[in-house]
Write a structure and sequence with these properties.
This protein is of the alpha/beta class. Helices cover 31% and strands 17% of the residues. It contains 25 helices and 27 strands. The structure holds iron/sulfur cluster.
Length: 753
């Protein structure tokens, strides 16, 4: 696998020339985001046609990171593409599947047992296909990426919303669905809408109890949860350089909570120091040589309103410690006012649990600052009054804070250290004792209802690690660490350092690089596994029109990817297409009856659940279609929502309109997404109708597709559909899916596995 420094070197090789060309073509100075994007355009000539918020661009990411829950289906699909190795540096991180219950040792041991077959599959598949493997216990995806792979000016995609964490080191890092990750792994470009740009101008410096986390909590309050949608947030100004690289990463990480595509900071001395401390001097030196192009042009800083779509001013000296929540990260409270709000809104002021860490806030700096409070508290006889849980973000952080006595400081006031994994941040928190309405305070990033322990009765506030620790000691929201005492003790404001004087201790991370030649490695899928199933390529189009397709369902109103393929308990089967297809359309509202998840089986007229009908049709080798209303497939870019219909024999989805990402996912799986030219056709479709899609041999970009509705009484309605397939996407349809096209391009036929 290409080393991180080689990769960075390649990016810097053309950076200045491409940036200069873009300045000439656009006739103006550039923001940092624009510099990174133009340097990763697949077609350098596309610069002139980039239009913020409107045009789409094909980008070539430098690397891909996959978390274990999603990696299963991505790797299984990659295997069916017939490639021998990934086309781009890729890593898999085993972090999401570890459930927190007792402590690090017990929880990790239980996860190794419960997920053994998944880990075995991922380990062997990574070795076979040239993917770096970070085993359970090695750390959380974004912290590991920050420590090892993120670099200024790079572009990466990752299958977790908080991939933007790497923006702390100046990387454009975007959270994506499995389909985009798969594209990148097979060498295809990453197609993304040209983002709008939000500039955040930072002045002043943080002090006292205020921390980088409070900056993003303030930004969330200003922009709200939707304010960053379709935008990249770029921080700049003298205040930026006063924040450590890991502090910047915290700010970028949580930028996902305002809906931003990503966030990033310019390269500076703090970035260089972090790169050097994490054994990447070569990258720091190479970045230093092109530093002028790893930040916005001076004219942009001087007159930001001309170059950003929106500018936000933040004076860091005015930032106070905050607690945002519950249920949404943009509900801002200063520490002194949160208790009054809680009382007025029926939220308990007693803190049941305080949680420090996750990928968002578990840096050396975070822990040194929290530990300084813990030491002071212990010296004055205090212990945490709330349960206190600490999640190190990586084995490197854990080993270093253990070596430097910081874990001991936290344990001395009653902390329990959890595994280096997501745990309570992603609902992997087995917490049987917490059935009643209760309040938690965490330094994680997300706090919507049920996020942490699956219970709507848990009210989560998000704060910096140092603020969380103060509330752990106080045990109540009725407390302001700046002015209140705990049992007669006034806590000292936190102090810390961003980099360990003795260097980082890598610990026993256990990273497994792929062998140079993995072709002899056998990918292990246990026989009879209920969690993993090798994929068989979908059949190519047979060259015939689709005639008299039964309508499996007609969806009423909103039809999200979650309603098409539910998450929750079904996530266990993400690697098993047959088993997870047991949820197909289970959450969709039947337009004919108003009932959710069931309809009339077109084969025998019986009422069954939609998943059962789909299984019945597939078993009878009967291709079918489904009908959607407007914006069919909105929501997360879950590829199962497109794979499952295809797996069960669906060949076309007809709708008034599609959510763009889901429409693309359907095309990739070989399903035709068609929109009614006359939206009223939707209303004309009845429960016993059949749909014919005609003249498919003549399918071409922008053509109208003639269709026919054969009603239950035998009468016929002709209608027309539009589509958005390009030439390349029509090739996907004919081949039976995008992976089949890649597979065909390989020198000789290969079989999955
Ligand atoms: S700790 Fe939370 S935000 Fe970070 S990778 Fe895990 S689930 Fe995502």
């Amino acid at each position: 696998m290409t080393s991180p420094s080689t990769l960075a070197g390649r990016v810097y090789e053309h950076l200045s020339a491409r940036v200069a060309r873009a300045r000439t073509v656009l006739g103006r100075p550039l923001t940092l985001t624009e510099k990174v994007l133009v340097n990763h355009l697949r077609d350098a000539g596309a610069i002139a046609s980039l239009e913020r918020g409107r045009s789409y661009a094909d980008l070539d990411p430098d690397r891909v990171a996959l978390q274990d829950a999603l990696a299963q289906i991505v790797v299984l699909q990659f295997m069916s593409a017939g490639l021998t190795r990934v086309e781009r540096p890729t890593t898999v991180h085993c972090d999401h599947l570890i459930q927190a219950r007792t402590d690090a040792r017990a929880d990790l041991s239980r996860a190794l047992d419960a997920n053994a077959e998944v880990y075995e599959f991922l380990r062997t598949a990574c070795a076979r296909y040239g993917i770096g493997f970070w085993p359970p216990g090695s750390g959380i995806i974004h912290q590991v990426v920050l420590e090892n792979y993120a670099f200024p000016g790079g572009l990466m995609i990752g299958t977790d919303s908080h991939t933007p964490n790497a923006g702390g080191l100046g990387m454009v890092a975007v959270g994506v669905g499995g389909g985009d990750a798969l594209d990148a792994m097979t060498g295809e470009p990453f197609n993304v809408r040209s983002p709008r740009l939000i500039g955040v101008h930072l002045t002043g410096e943080l002090s006292g109890w205020a921390a980088p986390k409070d900056v993003i909590l303030r930004v969330a309050g200003l922009l709200t949860v939707n304010g960053g949608t379709g935008a990249i947030v770029e921080y700049f100004g003298p205040g930026a350089a006063s924040i450590s690289a890991t502090g910047k990463a915290t700010i970028c990480n949580m930028g996902a909570e305002i809906g931003a595509t990503t966030s990033l900071f310019p390269y500076d001395d703090r970035s260089a120091a972090y790169l050097k401390a994490t054994r990447r001097e070569e990258i720091a030196d190479a970045a230093g040589a092109v530093a002028a192009d790893l930040c916005a042009d001076p004219e942009v800083e001087a007159d930001p309103d001309r170059f950003y779509d929106r500018v936000v001013e933040i004076d860091l000296t005015t930032i106070a410690p905050l607690l945002n929540g519950p249920d949404t990260p943009d509900r801002v409270h200063e520490v002194g006012s949160v208790a009054a709000w809680a009382r007025a809104n029926g939220v308990p002021t007693t803190v049941s649990t305080a949680l420090i860490g996750s990928c968002t806030n578990s840096s050396y700096e975070d822990i040194t600052r929290a530990a300084s409070i813990a030491r002071h508290a212990a010296a004055h006889g205090l212990r945490a009054k709330a349960q206190l849980l600490v999640t190190p973000g990586s084995e490197q952080v854990r080993a270093t804070i253990e070596r430097d006595g910081l874990l001991a400081d936290l344990e001395a006031i009653g902390a329990t250290v959890l595994a280096n994994a997501c745990g309570p941040c992603i609902g992997q928190w087995d917490r049987p004792e917490a059935d009643e309405l209760n309040t938690i305070v965490s330094s994680f990033n997300r706090n919507f209802s049920k996020r942490n322990d699956g219970r709507a009765t848990t009210k989560a506030f998000v704060a910096s690690p140092e603020t969380v620790l103060a509330y752990a000691l106080a045990g109540t929201l009725d407390f302001d660490p700046r002015v209140d005492d705990i049992d007669g003790v006034r806590l000292a404001p936190p102090v810390g350092t961003d980099l360990p004087a003795g260097g980082f201790d890598p610990g026993s991370g256990g990273y497994e690089p792929p062998p140079a030649d993995g072709s002899r490695v056998e990918v292990v899928v246990r026989p009879g596994s209920e969690r993993l199933q090798l994929l068989t390529p979908f059949p190519a189009w047979d060259g015939h029109d689709f005639r008299e397709l039964p309508v499996l369902l007609k969806a009423r109103g909103k039809c999200t990817t979650d309603e098409i393929s539910a998450a929750g308990a079904w996530l266990r089967y993400r690697g098993h297409i047959e088993n997870i297809s047991g949820n197909l359309f289970a959450g969709v509202t039947n337009a004919f009856t108003g009932v959710v998840g069931e309809g009339r089986d077109p084969l025998d007229g019986e009422v069954r659940t939609f998943p059962e009908i789909a299984r019945h049709l597939a078993g009878a080798n009967t291709p079918w279609c489904a009908v959607g209303d407007t914006n069919y497939g909105e929501g997360s870019s879950r590829e199962h929502a497109a794979m499952e219909p295809r797996y069960r024999g669906g060949v076309a989805i007809l709708a008034r309109s599609f959510a763009r990402i889901h429409e693309t996912n359907l095309k990739k799986q070989g399903i035709l997404p068609l929109t009614f030219v006359d939206p009223d056709v939707y209303d004309a479709i009845g429960p016993r109708d059949r749909v014919s899609v005609l003249d498919l041999a003549a399918l071409a970009p922008d053509c109208v597709v003639p269709c026919r509705l054969t009603h239950g009484d035998g009468t016929v309605t002709e209608f027309a559909c539009a589509h958005t397939l390009s030439d390349a996407q029509i090739e996907w349809f004919r081949a039976g899916g995008a992976l089949n096209v890649i597979r065909r391009r390989q020198p000789r036929p290969r079989t999955a596995g």
